[in-house]
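Take a record.
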Amino acid sequence: MNKIIEIENLTKNYGKVKALKGVTLDVNQGEVFGFLGPNGAGKTTTIRCMLDMIRPQGGSIRVLGYDPQKDPVAVRAKVGYLPGELNLEGNLKVSQVLHYFNDLRGNQLDWGRVKALAAQLELDLNVAIKNMSKGNKQKVGVVQALMHRPELLILDEPTSGLDPLMQHQVYRLLKEANREGATIFFSSHIIKEVEGLANRIAIIRDGVIVEEADPSQLMTMEMRRIRVRFIDAVPEESLAPLAQFSKVHRERQDMYSFQVKGEVDGFIKALAAYPIADLDVERPSLEEVFLTYYAAGGKE
C-alpha cells in the first residue's frame, strides 16, 4: 500500500517538557486512522509537526510523499485541516470566511459543494462568526476542511462542541469522503468515536505510542462505574460472584460501586441474583481509563 503519512522517531520538546518521545507511525492510502489519547498526550503536537506549524527536535516526517519542512505549501495544498482550536475572524460572515479559504486555494472550488455541506450540517452561511456558538463555529471548520475534496483530511478533535445528532452527521460526511478516496487521520479522546470511524488506531500517552490496534480491541479498554443500591443491607462477602467481573467498593451497607471492564453481560446476569432498589451507570473519562489500562506508562 502507498504510505500517505510516515513518521519515524519524532521528538518535540517545549523547554524542559518532552511532548513527543520518539513517535513512529504510518498511515496507508485510503485508511481512516484514529489517533487516540487523553488530553495532553501529544496528539495536537504530532499534527502540527505534520503540517510544519511547529518543528520537531528530531525524527522524520513525510506527508503525501513530501517533507513538510521542505515543501509545506505542497502538503497543505492537498490537505483538509481542522485544528483543535479554530480561530476565525469574528466580523466576517460564514460565507466570507469560506470564500477567503477558497481564494487561498486558487478559487477553484465549486460553491455548490459548500452550500450542500452547509445544508447537511444545518449551517447558516449568512451569520457573522462572532454571533455563533462554539458548535456552529466547529461546523464552519468541518466545511472548510471538506469543501475542496482533499486527498488527505487531518482533523484534530473533529466533533468537539457538537451535539450528538450533529456528531453523527459529521461521521457520515467523513465516511462519504473516505468512500470517494480521501485518507483520513483524526485525533480524538472519545473511545466510541474512534471505534466507530477508524480502520486502524494508534494510542498515544505521555508522548509515546503505547499501542497500535484494530478498533475492535478498544472494547477491552471500555470501563463502566456501576453504583448499585440494594433493597437490604448486603455483606461484602456475599458479593463474591460479582468480584470475578469487577472491582468492588463498599459505600455503605446497602450500596456498592463496581468498576467493570469490557462487556457487561456477565456482570449484569450475576447482578440479577440480588434484590436491587436502584442502579446508576457512569462512563469514566478516557484519562481514568488510561490510568487503569496503562499503569505507570506500560500496559498492565
Q: What stands out?
A: The first strand starts at residue 3 and ends at 14. The mean pLDDT is 89. The chain is about 30% helix and 30% strand. The radius of gyration is 23 Å.
